[in-house]
Each structure stands twice: as structure tokens, then as C-alpha cells.
Amino acid sequence: MTDTLQKLFDDTVKDLYNAEKQFLKAMPKMAKAATNPQLKTAIADHIKQTEGHVTRLEEVSKFLEIKPTGKVCKAAQGLVEEAQEHLEEVAPGPVLDAAIIVCAQKNEHYEICSYGTLIAWATQLGLNSIVPLLQQTLDEETAANDGLSKVATGAVNEEADAAKPKAPAAKGKASLK
Ligand SMILES: [Fe+2]
Prior knowledge:
This protein has one domain: Up-down Bundle (Ferritin). The protein is built from 5 helices and no strands. The chain is elongated, with a radius of gyration of 20 Å. The protein has helices at residues 5-33, 37-64, 74-89, 94-125, 131-162. Fe (ii) ion binds at residues 46, 50, 107-108, 111, 141, 144.
């Protein structure tokens, strides 16, 4: 039974550790499916950062004397499934890029909310020595989210809006000419 703020804190660290790992696994597929070079770079950069976020959560867990493993983040599972659905169903090019950005930003927002809350709880619990670790990751997640917004509004949204629908395949006739 989770009956203290400390236990809730520990559970949330484990949840976030699993979420980071799930996102880490999903991001290379998103980078590969992206067409816009800035988007590819933004995701590739965030993969490297996310490896650091995993390491920081391991440090936080060491401080808390808990194992970070053993929890499955259901929210991350849903977010990854949704991204996968887009990769399968959206036409490659700028429209898929726009879809990838919204999925990546949903991931960032989940993380931003979680790290923000962990920082507030750590402060409340007097766990001041781990606050800088959590804050560093929160700052990187926020910057990653802002970077994705710039890629979206700087080029991708306009390109996606200009995308022409593909003509449906002609049935029964090789050519209309
Ligand atoms: Fe992230």
C-alpha cells in the first residue's frame, strides 16, 4: 500500500525510469521515419540526452536506496503505441513529420510534468541533494520541447499543410490515358 509521500515519490521515480526507457527504445524509429533533417537531428540529440536522464534516475534511485526497475509506465506505453500507429498510418513526408512532432511533444510533456512534480515532492521531503539532478533533466526536457515547437512552426507545419493528397490508385485499368 502506498501510504506516504515518500513511497509515492519512489513509485513515481520507478514509473519515470520505465517511461524514459520506453521512449529511448521508440525514438530511433521516430528519427528514422522523419524526413525533415532538423527533426531528425532534434530526435537524435534527444536520444543522447535521454540516456543521461536514465543515468540520473539511477543516481536518484541509489540515493533513495531503491531499485528503479520493476514498474511499467502505462502512460508511456499508450504514448508509444500512439506514435507507432502514426508511423504505420500517416503518409511519409511532412504530414508524418508533423505527427511525429506531436507524439514527441506529448512524451516531453509527460516527462516535464513528472520531473516538475518530483522536484516539488523532493523539496517537501527535504531530499535537497537530488533536486539539482532532477532540475537538470527538467531543463533539458523543456528545451527539447521548445526545440520541437521551433521545428514545427519554422517549417514542418507549413510543409505539411502544402502536402497534396495522393491520387487513389486506378482500379481495373492500367492507365486512364
Ligand atoms: Fe524527453
